[in-house]
């Protein structure tokens, strides 16, 4: 059965309730937000303060928010709820809605799979009559929730169009995910075994299937240049990636391309220096000219990437200024949610300390220069590009 606007809401079948009273059934005359999320999911965590706000704002109108943690990572299923409970205690002292835990897959089978929802966070809004009113990203709730609460959303042209667009988009995404899965499985198994030839074969299969997939394209360059050290084959690949990124005017593509040329985790000793710096110059100029980004890319990512280039060129002051801008970008004009800020700020501060060669401070955080770090930047694990 396809789950969409107007469908009867499935049951709530979870293993345990970690916050709030258990919910056995949807009550008439109440509106529910059933939110699928996970602690490891940055956008999920970023959405939590907004759900707290919505619960407080509309509690007198009959709103009940239910968070469903059905995608937690832990060594064993028994450890997952304990780990989640500790996370909630530490991070969410002001939580005002229910949190349920399920590792059986039952909630995914009842809700996510029938609605063709392939990622989290995903919000399901259940109307006062127990039927689905909305399925989508939680940040869309501000616009649609007042209309759900007054009963006008499901009959509105906007509601019908939104549901139709969601189905078309998610069905396309689901088909794409199904096509990518065997490629990803082959790739990650090869990466784990450090079998770069097989990993390359998997990525080439992916590019043949989806030539415009940026993750496949970047993984292709990364394998050739940084794993296999095959400059003869890899240089034409990175040249084309740079050219396509600029032609698309895509900040996301350009950041990923410049990271293959200047990220401090990589070894560039075999690269022709003049060409690498020429590509870096062109990418940097285009990235900094994009304000705002057409891809809605956070600017701190742009500034950090370009700072690596300027530091390698010897323009230390420009590199420091860009890292300073990256740190400031975390605070506005649309501040980074606290959890995500905590993820990126320590790395930026360490990079700044390394570039300056002195201790730097940001609130209670401190960073001192580290020796023997390539290019003066902060060390990061060299991860394969996700596909």
Describe the structure.
By secondary structure, the protein is an alpha/beta fold. It contains 13 helices and eight strands. It has helices at 42-58, 79-91, 106-112, 141-149, 157-192, 196-209, 214-227, 231-248, 251-262, 273-289, 299-313, 316-329, 338-356; strands at 16-19, 31-37, 63-69, 98-101, 122-126, 132-136, 360-362, 365-367. The strands form two sheets. A six-stranded mixed β-sheet has the order 1-4-3-2-5-6, sandwiched between helices. The protein has a two-stranded antiparallel ribbon with strand order 7-8. α2 (79-91) links the parallel β3 and β4 (98-101). α7 packs parallel to α9. It starts with 15 loop residues before the first strand and ends in a 20-residue tail after the last strand. The model is unreliable at 376-387 (pLDDT under 50).
Which descriptors would you attach to this protein?
10% strand, globular, alpha/beta, 13 helices, six-stranded mixed beta sheet, disordered C terminus, 387 residues, 8 strands, two-stranded antiparallel sheet
What's the helix and strand layout?
Layout: E1 16-19, E2 31-37, H1 42-58, E3 63-69, H2 79-91, E4 98-101, H3 106-112, E5 122-126, E6 132-136, H4 141-149, H5 157-192, H6 196-209, H7 214-227, H8 231-248, H9 251-262, H10 273-289, H11 299-313, H12 316-329, H13 338-356, E7 360-362, E8 365-367
Parallel strand pairs: 2-3, 3-4
Antiparallel strand pairs: 1-4, 2-5, 5-6, 7-8
* Count of β-strands: 8
Distance between the termini: 30 Å
The overall average pLDDT, rounded, is 89
Structural class, from helix and strand content?
Answer: alpha/beta
Oligomer: single chain
Fraction in beta strands: 5-15%
The tally of helices reads 13
Helix content: 40-55%
Could you state the order of secondary-structure elements as H and E? Answer: EEHEHEHEEHHHHHHHHHHEE
């Amino acid at each position: 059965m396809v789950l969409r606007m107007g469908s009867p809401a499935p049951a709530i079948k979870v293993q345990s309730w970690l916050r709030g009273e258990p919910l056995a059934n949807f009550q008439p005359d109440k509106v529910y937000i059933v939110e699928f999320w996970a602690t490891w999911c940055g956008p999920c965590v970023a959405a939590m303060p907004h759900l707290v706000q919505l619960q407080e704002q509309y509690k007198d109108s009959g709103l009940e928010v239910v968070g469903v943690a059905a995608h937690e990572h832990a060594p064993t299923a028994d450890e997952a709820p304990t780990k989640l409970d500790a996370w909630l205690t530490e991070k969410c002292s002001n939580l005002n809605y229910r949190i349920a835990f399920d590792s059986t897959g039952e909630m995914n089978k009842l809700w996510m799979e029938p609605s063709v929802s392939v990622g989290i966070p995903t919000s399901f809004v259940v109307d006062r009559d127990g039927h689905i009113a909305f399925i989508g990203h939680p940040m869309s709730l501000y616009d649609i929730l007042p209309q759900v609460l007054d009963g006008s959303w499901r009959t509105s042209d906007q509601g019908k169009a939104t549901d139709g667009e969601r189905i078309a988009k998610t069905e396309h995404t689901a088909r794409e995910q199904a096509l990518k899965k065997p490629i990803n499985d082959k790739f990650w198994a090869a990466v784990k075994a450090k079998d770069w030839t097989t990993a390359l074969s998997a990525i080439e299969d992916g590019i043949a299937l989806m030539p415009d997939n940026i993750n496949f394209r970047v993984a292709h360059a990364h394998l050739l240049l940084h794993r296999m050290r095959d400059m003869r084959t890899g240089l034409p690949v990175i040249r084309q990636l740079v050219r396509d990124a600029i032609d698309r005017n895509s900040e996301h593509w350009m950041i990923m391309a410049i990271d293959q040329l200047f990220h401090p985790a990589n070894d560039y000793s075999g690269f022709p220096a003049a060409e690498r710096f020429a590509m870096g110059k062109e990418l940097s100029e285009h990235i900094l000219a994009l304000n705002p980004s057409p891809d809605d890319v956070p600017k701190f990512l742009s500034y950090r990437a370009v700072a690596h280039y300027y530091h390698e060129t010897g323009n230390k002051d420009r590199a420091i200024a860009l890292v300073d801008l990256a740190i400031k970008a975390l605070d506005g004009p649309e501040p980074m949610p606290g959890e995500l800020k905590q993820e990126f700020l320590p790395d930026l501060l360490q990079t700044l300390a390394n570039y300056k060669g002195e201790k730097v401070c940001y609130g209670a955080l401190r960073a001192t220069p580290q020796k023997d770090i390539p290019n003066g930047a902060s060390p990061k694990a060299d991860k394969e590009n996700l596909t």
